[in-house]
Every structure is written in structure tokens, then in C-alpha cells.
Amino acid sequence: MNIVTIVGARPQFVKAAVVSRAMQRAAENGVAVQESIIHTGQHYDHGMSSIFFEEMDIPQPVCDLGVHGLSHGGMTGRMLEGIENYLLDQRPDRVLVYGDTNSTLAGALAAAKLGIPAAHVEAGLRSYNRSMPEEINRVLTDHASTILFCPTAAAMDNLAAEGVADEPGRRRVVYSGDVMYDAFLYYQARNRPPGFPVPEEYALATVHRAENTDDPGRLAELVRSLNDVAGRLPVVLPLHPRTRARMEQAGLAFSDDVLAAPSVGYLEMLHLLQGCRLVLTDSGGLQKEAFFQQRPCVTLRSETEWTELVDLGVNRIAGTRTADVAACVEHFLSHEPDWSARPYGDGHAAETIVEWLCMPAW
User: Fold this and answer.
1) Are 98 and 232 in the same domain?
2) Residues 6 or more apart from 333 whose CB is under 8 A from it?
3) How many distinct structural domains can be found in the chain?
4) Which of 24, 107, 263, 284 has the fewest CB atoms within 10 Å of its CB?
5) Distance between CA atoms of 124 and 37, rounded to whole angstroms?
6) Where is the UDP-N-acetylglucosamine 2-epimerase domain (predicted)?
């Protein structure tokens, strides 16, 4: 079974590391499976890309398309063309995509147009905010893919509501559990300190989504909110390169109690998670990683695709307004959530996915 994996962004590197390792184990046990990785180049900063391949032992990509710094349409179109050319040359048995980025959609569309079965890991997630590029990507990818690996029961329900279901003689929707939970269980003991000192007690924050960074008014509001939180609890913020550039363009600055640090790798982020009191983020992946580490999360958006975390009381939707962010932080500093629920499976999602990928027919 020849499988081509498409990745381009930090969360996809983490997920691909787990599934690639499961493929390698299957091959060592006599399963005929071979993987080739295409890196679209979507994250081109070393701290956002190359370092992940190095520290997580991900097989090196067979090609890097080098597509970045363009509009959403420009990136998706260039990626689609580059992926299609590789697939036409190699004719793999399966194409594997992850998450909700432009790389995800380009990979699924290229496979679908060439009649190559596509598998989507992290299928069925919905924020129901069509102004988010990620929402468009995940919906279209689900409907273009052949088989859908859902991380939660809610994701399966979302697909059923859209009419995406198994067909006679063909399985389309599979509950796999979440590969990010697999990754956390494997890598948490391997975490390492970042290359900068951190306070003894702190909140961990990340800001990178275009809806927050590309609107100067919203970005200014977020900076005010984090500065306000830092007046109560120091904030450690590994700063995304795009966020740093947008802040410089807008003349915005953090207070001295916000440590705006360079981007960090996954193992360093796990270390920062382990040491923090709580998390403030607009990242989907970090919301889950906070839950795995049993750290409460304040989401700096108006919605989340991980609705089960809100239902469990471990995540609060704050948006960007200073008063709302402060209220959520105050709640979590004075209330310890219940961490007993396990909505993301048993830590063996990758094995389930590889087992399905290696089946001769779906």
C-alpha cells in the first residue's frame, strides 16, 4: 500500500509523526505499507516547520512545494497544482490529509480529481463560522474525501447531520479517536525547556489566526487583553511570526509582564504547558493539548470546533474583549475543573487509522 501524506503546518506535523510511526511499526510487522510525505511549505519559518521534522523523527518529505506568503486562493491553487503533478507521476494507492488548512484542502481536491482515494484525519469538526478559512477547508475536505476519521462522537454527529454516512458496501465514517492525544501520551515525557527563562507562575498564550491578527482593531484589543491578564499573572507568549509582523505594522506592544518569546517546537510547548496555570489561545490544537495536560483554557475566539471542552467546563469562550477575557481568567484561577472525562479516545487512534489505510478496499 503506497500512501502519500500531505502536510504543511505545525499541527499536521505533530499528527503525521504519530501516524507515520504507526505505519513504520506495521511495516516492521510484515504489512506492505510505504509512506511518502509532501510538505507544501505553508509554514516556512524554521521554528514553525523544519524543527518539527527534526525533533519528532518525522520522515523527511520527498518534496517541498515551497508555497507560502500568498492569498488563500493563491496558496491553495499552487499547492493543488504541485500535489497533482506528484500524484500523476507516482500514482499512490491512498492520499492522507490532516486538519483544516489550505494544504488539507489542496491534497483532498488533487486526490479526488485524479480518482485516488483520500483519507481525512480529524474529520467532522465544525465551528459553524463560515468566515473562518479553516471552516471552509474542513467542510470541503470532508465532502471530497473517501474515508473520514473522526476524533470525537460529536464529529460523527456533525457528518451525519450533513448527510455524510456509510454507503452500501462501503465504509465512509470511522471513529478513530484523536491522534493528538496519541502524540501527547508519547511525547509528554520527552518535553524539554525552551531556550529562554520563564516565570515560576504564568499563563501560556498563543495568537495566530488571521481573524485576530489581520484586523488591526481586533489585534489591538487582544494586546490590551493580554496586557491586562499579565497585570494579574505573567503571560508567556511564543509569538507567531505573522503576529509579530502585524503588531509592528500597527505599532502595538506588550507590557513588560508579557514575555513575547520566539516560536517554539512541540516538545518545548509541552514543557510550557506543564508549567503554566492556564492557557489563552486562538489555536484549535492548543485547546486540546491544554485539556490533555489538565490546564484550563480561555479561547480567544467567538466559537470553537472543540465544543465538548466547553461542555465539560474546562474551556471558556472569551473572544477578545478585555472584560470578557479577564472574567474567564478569574473563573479558572478560582475554580478547578473536573478532568475525569475522556472524549478523545484511548490513545490508539494512529493504529486504528493505519489499519483502515492498509485495507485493500473501503
Assistant:
1) no
2) 232, 233, 277, 278
3) 2
4) 24
5) 24
6) 32-357
Residue type present at position 112:
A
* Arithmetic mean of pLDDT, 290-309: 97
- 42 with 101: CB under 8 angstroms? yes
Hey, how many other C-beta atoms are within 10 angstroms of the C-beta on 275?
Answer: 18
**Euclidean distance between CA atoms 95 and 59, whole angstroms:** 16
Same domain flag for 50 and 142: yes
**Is 362 inside a domain boundary?**
no
Place of cell 465544543: 307
- Per-residue pLDDT reduced to its tens digit, 6-62: 999 888 999 999 999 999 999 999 999 999 999 998 866 545 556 667 777 788 899
Q: Is residue 78 part of a domain?
A: yes
Q: Of the residues 39, 43, 120, 208, which is catalytic?
A: 208
The Cα–Cα gap between 164 and 126 comes to 14
Q: Do 140 and 215 belong together in one domain? A: no
Whether 271 sits among the annotated catalytic residues: the reply is: no
**163 in the same domain as 32:** yes
Cell of 81: 497544482
Residues 6+ apart with CB under 8 A from 118: 94, 95, 96, 97, 107, 108, 111, 112, 144, 145, 146, 147
Q: What is the pLDDT of residue 58?
A: 80
Mean pLDDT of 199-209: 96
Q: What percentage of the chain has pLDDT greater than the value 70?
A: 97
Q: What is the dihedral of CA 285, 349, 5, 190, to 10 degrees?
A: 60
8 Å CB contact between 285 and 306: no
* Domain that includes residue 168, residue range: 2-178+345-357
